[in-house]
Queue: 2 jobs
Job 1
Amino acid sequence: MYGAGDVRVEEVPDPQLREPTDAVVRIVRSCVCGSDLHPYHSMKRRDRGAPMGHEFLGVVEELGSEVSGVRRGDLVVAPFVWSDNSCVFCREGLHTSCRRGGVFGGGQAEAIRVPQADGTLVRLPVAEDSALLPSLLTLADVYGTGHHAARLGRVGPGTTVTVIGDGAVGLLAVLSAQRMGAERIILMGRHTSRTDLGREFGATDVVAERGEEGVERVRELTGGDGTHAVLEAVGHMPAYETAVGVVRPGGVISRVGVPQYESAPVGFGSLFGGNVTLTGGPAPVRAYIDELLPDVLEGRVEPGRVFDRTVGLDETPEGYRAMDRREALKVLIAP
Amino acid sequence: MYGAGDVRVEEVPDPQLREPTDAVVRIVRSCVCGSDLHPYHSMKRRDRGAPMGHEFLGVVEELGSEVSGVRRGDLVVAPFVWSDNSCVFCREGLHTSCRRGGVFGGGQAEAIRVPQADGTLVRLPVAEDSALLPSLLTLADVYGTGHHAARLGRVGPGTTVTVIGDGAVGLLAVLSAQRMGAERIILMGRHTSRTDLGREFGATDVVAERGEEGVERVRELTGGDGTHAVLEAVGHMPAYETAVGVVRPGGVISRVGVPQYESAPVGFGSLFGGNVTLTGGPAPVRAYIDELLPDVLEGRVEPGRVFDRTVGLDETPEGYRAMDRREALKVLIAP
């Protein structure tokens, strides 16, 4: 990406091993993330392009001398953050704060260097042409991020939940809340094709209204109280304000949309008076893959249904455009 | 209180029962709260004074026809919020959001009307001249509030904790963190007499520096990472900024100082990037009295040590002045 709206496909040198803990992975599937749209809207023009893409699965091609957990030829998925899976933060399940971690760039490509390969890569027991690839790819980010939202939102049996946003993460937050036993899941979104999928994922109610009107609708649906958990999967200020408007006293606002603001209301009238908790952040998806993988492999959940368009690597710029125009929910890239 | 700095002692009509669920309590001990200092600094002048005081213990004098849980002559303590102790929020332990609740005013007085007496009043098994009265009075607010901070901060064995503020609530947050088994408790405060009491309550380290320098000190003490829990017992923006500066990735900022600001930094660089949770609010102290009372009765904790001055009711304005000038930590009123 060279600037807002300017995504190009270029020939670059092949990735090489640099550290003995590295691997090189040939990418089999990658995709465009909702968070890629933020720089797509606002990135300043630059002379050197930024390599894009942090979600991928692929086949291990080369291994550094210290890598022992995966082998050449293994099909693997990588979380969007690499991590050693052994530091104090990783042991606490906070791989996004790993002392040796970092965020991938350049996953929308033919191959990629993976630092901390042993801590990062998870072997997938399927073939390279498995029909499960789209769902398995969501373990790299969006499914784990939806799970993170629901988990930090303390969703469980008896919980009422509002999900703000009908993008891929919002829909997978619905699926995650349903999987954790939520009693009621209100999905706020305006795109019928998306909210229809949300209903299939477990949404019990859909609220298409936004702003004050949307808040009013959720309050009506909940006897005036709001919901125990609000999973905010957008990242813009109006979504935050809606979250504050629909959360129940004592409830939790769990944010996984990357905030496009720095300051927000947190005082007596917004969070404090009602003992509302604000939580969330980049999802340590590596911590969740072991838990989420079996349901995907056995077909009990199909998070890959969020992909509604597939492009080749050369068509990646068109994939960005389609997502930006809401013509596509989430674009799969098959290099 | 008629305005900032203007506290008067006046004769007013005796409180009367209004509802069958009311009681009238003759006040034996009350006190001045740190939160009373906020209007003491900023309240606009008004013609009718606002009755002050929300912490009291006393003797039941009159009972409405529907009150059955306490009797005339019982010594009782009241949480600073009255509540029915039976609505859906009370059953969840969130008495501050009780459907029939409200905040007391007029506890700095000889007597007070107590709505929802059955839900609100807790009988104290001691005599009216017990030496335990100061500690028992802290159950009305400050001890329960310190406990709330530590509880929402998920303090437990192995937890590292920073407490911001050496007022009564901050010191009782230290005591609460210690009682819950915190591994390390760093108290940020500048008043040696107070931080000395904080050490007796369990603080392992004291940081007198403020602002950037204070943040730096706490980071030095924690190998650069900050602490798992930050208990913020002040309510001003610099305290919030310090909290953001000293919290560990994945940690919790638990606020019990009433925020004197509405907006604050919550974006990627402050809370989101490190998966930091922001929680807190008015403490539902009624929910905690049953748990906290035994240790007080048996002398295992002495939260009443935060009172370092006692005045008669007529001297209440002087009590405000002393607390405002930091000459007194917390002022007990013996009408």
Note: The first strand of chain B starts at residue 23 and ends at 31.
Job 2
Amino acid sequence: MKVITFGEVMLRLSPPGVERFVQTDSLTMHFGGTEANVAVSLAQLGLETAHVTRFPDHALGRSATGYLRRYGVGTQHVRYGDGRLGLYFLETGAGSRASQIVYDRVDSAFSRITSTEIDWESILTGADWFHWTGITPALSQGAADSLLAGIQTANRLGVPVSGDIVYRSNLWQYGRSPQEIMPALTEGCTLILGNKSLFSELYGVVGSTFIEAGRAMMRRFPTIKYVTDTKRNSLSASHNQLSAKLYDGSTVHKSRVYDIQPIVDRIGTGDAYMAGLIYGLLTFNDPQRAVEFGSAASALKHTIPGDVNLATVTEIETLEAGDSSGKLRR
Amino acid sequence: MKVITFGEVMLRLSPPGVERFVQTDSLTMHFGGTEANVAVSLAQLGLETAHVTRFPDHALGRSATGYLRRYGVGTQHVRYGDGRLGLYFLETGAGSRASQIVYDRVDSAFSRITSTEIDWESILTGADWFHWTGITPALSQGAADSLLAGIQTANRLGVPVSGDIVYRSNLWQYGRSPQEIMPALTEGCTLILGNKSLFSELYGVVGSTFIEAGRAMMRRFPTIKYVTDTKRNSLSASHNQLSAKLYDGSTVHKSRVYDIQPIVDRIGTGDAYMAGLIYGLLTFNDPQRAVEFGSAASALKHTIPGDVNLATVTEIETLEAGDSSGKLRR
Amino acid sequence: MKVITFGEVMLRLSPPGVERFVQTDSLTMHFGGTEANVAVSLAQLGLETAHVTRFPDHALGRSATGYLRRYGVGTQHVRYGDGRLGLYFLETGAGSRASQIVYDRVDSAFSRITSTEIDWESILTGADWFHWTGITPALSQGAADSLLAGIQTANRLGVPVSGDIVYRSNLWQYGRSPQEIMPALTEGCTLILGNKSLFSELYGVVGSTFIEAGRAMMRRFPTIKYVTDTKRNSLSASHNQLSAKLYDGSTVHKSRVYDIQPIVDRIGTGDAYMAGLIYGLLTFNDPQRAVEFGSAASALKHTIPGDVNLATVTEIETLEAGDSSGKLRR
Amino acid sequence: MKVITFGEVMLRLSPPGVERFVQTDSLTMHFGGTEANVAVSLAQLGLETAHVTRFPDHALGRSATGYLRRYGVGTQHVRYGDGRLGLYFLETGAGSRASQIVYDRVDSAFSRITSTEIDWESILTGADWFHWTGITPALSQGAADSLLAGIQTANRLGVPVSGDIVYRSNLWQYGRSPQEIMPALTEGCTLILGNKSLFSELYGVVGSTFIEAGRAMMRRFPTIKYVTDTKRNSLSASHNQLSAKLYDGSTVHKSRVYDIQPIVDRIGTGDAYMAGLIYGLLTFNDPQRAVEFGSAASALKHTIPGDVNLATVTEIETLEAGDSSGKLRR
Amino acid sequence: MKVITFGEVMLRLSPPGVERFVQTDSLTMHFGGTEANVAVSLAQLGLETAHVTRFPDHALGRSATGYLRRYGVGTQHVRYGDGRLGLYFLETGAGSRASQIVYDRVDSAFSRITSTEIDWESILTGADWFHWTGITPALSQGAADSLLAGIQTANRLGVPVSGDIVYRSNLWQYGRSPQEIMPALTEGCTLILGNKSLFSELYGVVGSTFIEAGRAMMRRFPTIKYVTDTKRNSLSASHNQLSAKLYDGSTVHKSRVYDIQPIVDRIGTGDAYMAGLIYGLLTFNDPQRAVEFGSAASALKHTIPGDVNLATVTEIETLEAGDSSGKLRR
Amino acid sequence: MKVITFGEVMLRLSPPGVERFVQTDSLTMHFGGTEANVAVSLAQLGLETAHVTRFPDHALGRSATGYLRRYGVGTQHVRYGDGRLGLYFLETGAGSRASQIVYDRVDSAFSRITSTEIDWESILTGADWFHWTGITPALSQGAADSLLAGIQTANRLGVPVSGDIVYRSNLWQYGRSPQEIMPALTEGCTLILGNKSLFSELYGVVGSTFIEAGRAMMRRFPTIKYVTDTKRNSLSASHNQLSAKLYDGSTVHKSRVYDIQPIVDRIGTGDAYMAGLIYGLLTFNDPQRAVEFGSAASALKHTIPGDVNLATVTEIETLEAGDSSGKLRR
């Protein structure tokens, strides 16, 4: 099983523990990006993965590559060139104090990607899944074009495509709107992560409930077989409740609700869900189990420092089976 | 708006995380002192502040000055001289294990202050508030005398004065009792932080409820316009509930109750309340809002390592408005 | 009061905080072993202790000795020789993610101990208690033989003996079964920590309740005066409930139930109970108080990093008296 | 004595010790910028300083302000606005391995400065010195314009001006050449740090020796009273030799040569020289002593982590007086 | 260009900086093994590499794999199975205090390898070089047999083979002597790293000088085209001098002598030489340049923490060209 | 062999590496005191030791005890009582920047010792050596009296006494001069560490050379059999040269000169010499070897972080034998 992901990877810099930026003198390094996070999670679950991206050709770009490799993601398709390494600064909150992110990703090497730089044909040949998110087309025309080429190649090669249609309004700075760009990308997708307000805002597709909105999306984009979403109840920065649902065209499969306390690191928990769901759909012939596996994966990610889910199949299955006792394993 | 504070600043030394002294090999440095903590909080809220104190004239005294400056507190009135830097050793507890403090502040440079060393006239001219606490007069005759001179100067210049009349019996070692010293300091105060048992013990002012005791204080000390106090319910070292109330001569304004879990650092949370309250009284024409703002400030302080509250106005207002969800802010 | 303990001490290596092995680049060192953990706890409580063990004769073996000495345990009976230092790698979990241990203790210097290496006569003369656990006889014939010699010497000298009959099936690799070895070790014990399923599995002693099983044990092993056990309800890796009970031949003394949140370090909490109980039995003439003291000791250990309980008598008594408020102690 | 400096301040991120980027998981934070480094040095020497710059209006910009304040630099003239915080990544070398810098400063908040944003009149009124470097005009038209306005205001107010005419060719990206920009900035300077090849390249001013080139500069720019330069002999990343010379229109004053081993941090050592020289010129009426003081300051900076020189007057004078014994001071 | 290496990889644990084991409470993690060190170096130089080894199938074995991957070494041929992860404890010295190693590698997963476990045919097909050392056959019969199978397969496929015939007498514990095992492994080697005393001890091949001994080795083992060795002059733990020589059957090519001060990490510097030499022989058609490149690579390794050389081709060529100035590179 | 030492132990707090106080946010903990340093060194060399001191009865006093125990020093004679724990703050220099100490030891628990608190009779019975320094009588009358009682008891019991007559003028604050106090302490000493200017200043004993001054001391104090001193040539904070000499009444035995570079930690190197010398005098019947052993011990201490020498006999003998190559020991 081989999964290809495409998107920017940023250097994440955060103070130790729950210190604030104004008081810290050192920063912990992680690397992350929503699509690469999915790739790392899937690599931990034992799938073959490769992440397609573009890094600056200097020591920090090489460090980013090393990070992906360390966690088992194939980096043979990484391109190196001009531009900076995208960064984000994360201050981790606690209790009633929210975590905060300062992005510093403008004009990154990734955003300077051009549509002809990636040889999608060779990359996607033999792949079993291709995953993208709404962050990529928001970054630059080149990124949007490259992505579209990737999705269309996947379609031609019969590779299933998942899209997390996350929309961050402050990213779309290059002169195009998501309404112009997103529909073409959504064509040919098999699985969409989103909710009814996004469907309405991005595509004008409306539905008063998740199921109706999902059904409407499937009518508008006939290749879509699954629509999924997560639900988070934020009680505090240290305490959340989480569940997920998956509509397969006939049934909405709902996961159990996880009560998550304490939260070690909330970043990348949505990507952990997506990775778990993709793993489930590729591995089990059972949408209910796939959504349960994805939710358990996401719940476990909350306990792991960094952007990426380093949980194993065994750990996820233990939690999915209802054992959240955290009993010492010798 | 300019606020002047006066008091000792100590070097705080604590093991990393929740380690115990007997097992640690390194100590984390912070600086703190109840009055300076108020100044730092107010500086974060955007007010101009200056802290008046006395440090030893060596590298550690300079480090203490640097700490105050880093957080925006004016240090132009700091005096340097003989004596040591006061210290305290803090071991942070968790759950059922209490935090512990070992004080080592005897004969500090601050306690050697003399009443003529501070030019209160020039310091307080143009100030909008002066804050002191019951720690200062407990340290030495010179500290008590200097404080009295400051309060009287403030009165003469029409600068409102707040006093947190905290009483630590083991501090009063120089031959005077708080009953001899505190009344003169309380004369001319605008705002007092204390409770009925303190009022009774220090001044012989009795009242069976907070409101009655407050009323009695106002009769005894006619300049007092506000009496305030906080209420803490300690469920464990990691879980507290907190609220505050403010009596303005007619009404007791009560804040909402904050459920605080987990507690990152409990030290300085009372000072954070005081700073928030002073900010509120200076900024809003609304005692209820001031006490709410102070309580929210104090609640947030529990999530921040160190003695000082590094929360911003926006963060406090968000919490005050009822959003304790801790949702990631991008 | 002097307590002698006997068993292996391992170097414990764990990533900082709640990091996973695959992501960490440094490891925190502690040392621990179930019997030595009891000795350290008792030393913190003010008793004289000495731990009998065998370390490799190199810098790491010397470091292990230094660790025991740091916490007040006598190391005059430590032997040095060939073999490795036993290790274990601990990954600390959080919430729904369990802590994990990878043991690496095969062929340790301790397991190479021979029955004639220890001069039990001189060690136990003047001792007030001797403690062992079921880990030791599982490691090697030499360890089992040495232990048996120790217990028999204690019996001859009239030193009370406690045994925690913990059974780890994967340890018994040297060709003997616990059913062959454990009964002779249990002869002559005064106090046994275990439960009815262990009694049945190891000795064929059955009883449908704790009290009945305890009574049956006392019939089978007439020297036993106390049977004890702890009960843990694992809600998550960060949240447990704990209590203990002690049967003295007539009554089952039950402790209060501690709700423990957050858990800083769960390792060694059973040993902390055992140490507290031994202290209680040696110090108070009151089994109920002993079991309460042991339970409070164990509850506090959950808040302390490392394998060993560094709580003091005062702290334990405060908690035992019902004060779990974690209020700052100045 | 009050010195004003103007220029960009960057967040410096470096691996601990001499680790390489590809192997590190954490970064140490410092802040630095050639002009601000001069201000910090001067503040340590006891002068009043204020640094004029522009930071992004977020937590990291506020951290940069806090850094300057911590070391006593006035930040009352800092502007906040759009744009990023400039960064640089420093890998510290050792022996034959060179230190390496990756700059990431494009489109910083500072480079977005506009010439009307700074109220030079009020800032420079009462100042005793104004310092700039060739980095600033290389960053953007707005930075060059702002600087020119500052220099001209200083001239009008009679404030002496020093310029370090460092030229980094890769910085000049906004369409103007240093040959177009630098001459107008150099008009009205009192002190120039540069060498004959720079004089030739930037201004077409030639001279076959330092003294002749200096004389030619003074003819071309009649306000110049001093021309200075440092000389570094790099034996390895850990071992350098350093000296300086100052031409005052009649004599070349040469400092002693410092043999520097080991080098703790080479960054900012030129700025330390400049600060020491400015201090010397402002304080001693003796060019020889000024250049000696500057050289000793620079030599000491090599022993101090970070960009800024935290040496005191006493320490510099001790070294200047020939005592490089490093004897413990109690 | 693709290089295959084969051998054990150990977890290296060392105190921070130059602390001693008896005083440290934390350990820094690296992974290393002489053959894998060669692979990592070559990967940094841009060659394709894959390391063949056997790890335990648990989190630490997976961490070891991640370490190799992070630095670009292919891990597709790593086997997982029973046994422990080999460890070594390194205390880094300084000046007159020597570094010390405590090995703890007995019965590792690697030593349990069996000769049929590795599919050498597929691994070595298409490879350009195969490297082994004398550590491997010292560990177990299975390791020796596996290695012999690898060398013979390489010979059959025409892949050049290098052997570092390092001899550690304390390793050979499984009943065979190096004199029995090494000759068959040396058959078919192209390049041998060793000296005349080793040649004599292991093979009875004698020669009174390096060149004569090399010539004798080539007569005894006709496939050998190169014999090489390094020479180290240890002035202190912080100061060494290093050079290398390469005999190609006609000429002894000697490198320049590097004066290395300070030494950051001496471990793996021989492996760095070997990697540089292999790179040189594969890339340049010039034995002199190859030995110079190898020596420069080794010299740089002394400045890099950990077992592996993270120097780049550019850095090595700069040093090889004589620039050891360590000048800052922007 | 059992050695008793007596004196204050202070908590040493220092920034990591070579950071300055004004820039650090954490401090590394060590404990040290000149006499206890001797005891720790001797314990590493395998002698039985016990240190007599007085600590405050709180967690930090207990930590100090734990520190001594960790390194094998007997703490059975430590007294606990009122007063503070003495502190000193150490900033470690490099190259031309000197290390700096800020003492904060006034009114320590040790200085409050009373002459009747120590049962010297039982402590010194069976001892083979007693060591003191000139720090102790400088601290308080009680300390001086206790020391005198100890020396006199040692004399009565026939225990040899060594005194390091270090004189720090700023310590003598309690109203007595060293000229009043030191002679009585020096009576009955066997070995004195000092130089001719000290002999002259403290006792009025003059001699124009070391040998003449030593001879004069032996005339004045007939019990003295050895006079010793070290000689340090400070080239920089990172580079020293060190040697020692010992006069035994007939011959001056001089050690070789050690060139020490780099210096890791210079504190306690004199105490390391003293410990080595005492060990040598107790163990070898050869004054020359004793002074060589002491010097080698002192040279090694410069490479070890902290106040105490953790070198072993083997390491010292290796260096003493002339091997300063620092070659890796496996």
Note: The first strand of chain C starts at residue 2 and ends at 6.
